[in-house]
Amino acid sequence: MIKRTRVQEWSKGVLLMGRFEWFGTGCWLLTHNGVGAILELPPYSPDHQESPATKAYNVCKKRKIDVKYILCTHTHIDHYNAKTAREMQGAFPRAEVHLQRGFEGIAGMLNNVYFFDHDSKLDIGGEPLYLVHAPKHSWTDTNVIFKGTAIMGDWELNTLRSAHDDKPRYAVPKDAKIAAIDKMSRFEHDHKYHIHKVFSVHANDRRENIDFTALMHDTKVDRASF
Question: What is the count of structural domains for the chain?
């Protein structure tokens, strides 16, 4: 039997459409004034789960959302899957794909792709959408900020440490992580913008009414948390 997931509105205009195999990665819809962006392109098991593209297409058709962008937080295999990416483009052929430059080697076969080096500011129905390159968990980490919510990919919060620190191929050096955290600490001041919610893209960490700058300062503390 194919499992169909229920849409959850985590915040106004920030909808979790489902969590997909293999690691329960979330696929999100960000929307304002009838315009939307799809966030994350995870793999899925077709034998028992509908595809993220099918789910996104049906949700957007029902809600009359015009999908303008397709996005992804980082290149790890549980977040970017080539088959899902192709299917998502098939579902939304007019959508632009905006990815950090580090995706270039794995996403070059897609159409209508725009690679950015550092940060990017987009627009969804008149509401700003920020893509901030800030490597901590991975070199391609892109934090997505929309409607006062920061979706932080797989960032480990309240600690400087990251899950891949012991894997030379994937680890981000300490000085680069500190620079990324400092960059996020300055975001509210630099952009005159208030962030009051933080979600993980896996939908396993949900924080509301937070002091974002204080959270970023605390994330610089080198403490064991896993």
Answer: 1
